[in-house]
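Fig. S4 source data, part A: sequence.
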Amino acid sequence: MREQRVSIPVTEKLGEGLLSVPEGETIDLDLRLESMHEGILVTADAQTTAVGVCGRCLIDIEEPVQVDFQELFAYPSDEAFDHEVHDDHVDLEPLIRDTVVLALPFQPVCRPDCPGLDPETGERLADVPDRESSQIIDSRWSALAAFQASDTDEPRPNTAGPNTAGTNTEKR
């Protein structure tokens, strides 16, 4: 068994969405390589930083990325394996790239409660928290505009009258 700590440079951008690991960033790896009968078992913890924009308000953000993975690199044989040992070496680059890219969020946000942008003016709602939203209510939802949730847990009075389902009150 061998344990190593390695920092590798990112030679090309990882990811294509709103958040990606830029070229020139480094990926810090804590590796554990174990010789097994079938091949070499690689256990790793990778850490890096992704940059991009918030999916709601479009400001620049940086987000730490940490992924753990474990993969068996098999010795060459007649069977097909995803990863193999070649000339006593294992190529971790495709595995690291795939693992980091899959760990990137699809819709990153600057903070969980980011209010986003005003649909009319385009300004960040987080910059003007006092401003009332100028939302136009869709006419299909106008009946709900007057609805307000009650702060009390008191039951509402039954206005439909007593339950008479299944009883016959008609006299013959």
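Fig. S4 source data, part B ends here. The chain has one helix and five strands.
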